[in-house]
Amino acid sequence: xxxxxxxxxxxxxxxxxxxxxxxxxxxxxxxxxxxxxxxxxxxxxxxxxxxxxxxxxxxxxxxxxxxxxx
Length: 70
Prior knowledge:
This protein has a domain at 26-57. It is 83% helix and 0% strand. It is rod-shaped. It is mostly helical. Residues 1-25 are annotated as: Disordered.
């Protein structure tokens, strides 16, 4: 008898625990994915700006690289 009630409690407690944890984990994973996407987009924009800067710098004879100026 005691074993039956114990099984019943475990059977109801475990799904309730996992049901409250899994959506939170999924939500955090989705938030992290969205944040990662925005970081990647920002980095890609930074790379594009750097490429443009580098291209314009190469066209300018007054633009010396730090290791070339010494």
